[in-house]
UniProtKB/TrEMBL annotation:
UniProt entry tagged with the keyword Transcription: yes
Classification via PROSITE patterns: HTH_LYSR
UniProt keyword list: DNA-binding, Transcription, Transcription regulation
Residue span(s) of domain HTH lysR-type: 1-58
Protein name: LysR substrate-binding domain-containing protein
Family: Belongs to the LysR transcriptional regulatory family.
Species, as recorded: Streptomyces rectiviolaceus
Domain of life per record: Bacteria
Tagged with keyword Manganese: no
Length: 297
């Protein structure tokens, strides 16, 4: 009995197909079938029922399957222990982010972790802050960059990594720019068409709340998750964009920037499960991210 045969058995049962199992294992379908038949001959029992449209384990096959999974798990654990002893980390890290995190060098963070731990696979998904928090608590993500609410989601810990003002940005021929103003009361935007983020970014909630507190409901003309799109729309005179200050300042020839009173702040946080991560790779990534991402002063 070989570990390869047990791995093939588990894959065939989970995929309910020799063909899909072969694709998953990156081997040929006849090779999978041959190894399973060899295992059945060695044990003297049929492990798989091939009579239907899908492959299913026989009664004895289901029993063997439990031991096969246990054996494969033990071998993986032994390899991980040896890798850790040798200083080589393996595994997979799932990271999430809101679009607004483009103001951070998240690709640079992932790249620096990859250079340090090249055997660790990294995946990245983009979603709303609420969905990212839910994915964290459900263990579908190991860490996420999100726009936090005023209280931490249940089961999630946060480390602030960005806290910067959002500004109003208008085209250079807008009356606010022509007047040379650099500040305005937020209430002055009550009758203006606003260009701002979608609700998926999280920061949109802060913008809406600030407008309501100033006595009006914002009149949203355009919304997008990419701050660069918002900046270009404002540069073309389509309205007043509410943007992170660094993004607005990246367009000095096209945009005039005004600070609002009160100031709306754009906040980002690194989030992870309060109960801790479930793998050495995820633990190492979280430590790397917490050290690398800047904390606002």
């Amino acid at each position: 009995m070989e570990l390869r045969q047990l791995e093939y058995l588990v894959a065939v049962v989970e995929e309910a197909s020799f063909t899909r199992a072969a694709a998953r294992l990156h081997v040929t379908q006849p090779g999978v079938s041959s190894q399973i038949r060899q295992l059945e001959r060695e044990l003297g029992q049929r492990l798989l029922d091939r009579s239907g449209r899908t492959v299913r384990p026989t009664e004895v096959g289901a029993t063997v399957l439990e031991y096969a999974r246990s054996a494969l798990s033990s071998v993986a654990g032994a390899r991980l222990a040896v890798d850790e002893y040798a200083g080589l980390l393996r595994g997979h890290v799932a990271v999430g982010t809101v679009t607004l995190a483009s103001t951070l060098d998240l690709p640079g963070l992932l790249a620096s972790f990859h250079r340090r731990h090249p055997a660790v696979e990294i995946s990245l998904r983009e979603s709303s802050s609420d969905e990212l928090a839910e994915a964290l608590t459900a263990s579908r993500l190991d860490a996420a960059v999100l726009a936090p609410a005023y209280t931490s989601p249940p089961g999630v810990e946060l480390q602030a990594i960005a806290d910067e003002p959002l500004v109003a940005a208008v085209s250079r021929d807008d009356p606010l720019a022509v007047a040379g103003r650099d500040r305005l009361a937020l209430s002055e935007l009550a009758d203006r068409a606003l260009i701002t983020f979608t609700h998926s970014t999280g920061t949109r909630g802060d913008i809406d709340a600030a407008c309501v507190a100033a006595g009006f409901r914002p009149r949203i003309a355009f919304e997008a998750s990419d701050p660069g799109v918002l900046a270009r729309l404002a540069a073309h005179g389509m309205g007043v964009a509410i943007l992170p200050a660094p993004i607005a300042r990246d367009h000095p020839e096209e945009l005039h920037v005004l600070f609002t009173d009160p100031v709306i702040r754009g906040r980002l946080a690194l989030a992870w499960r309060s109960a801790g991560t479930e793998s050495p790779a995820a633990t190492a990534f979280l430590a790397h991210a917490r050290a690398a991402l800047r904390t606002p002063v």
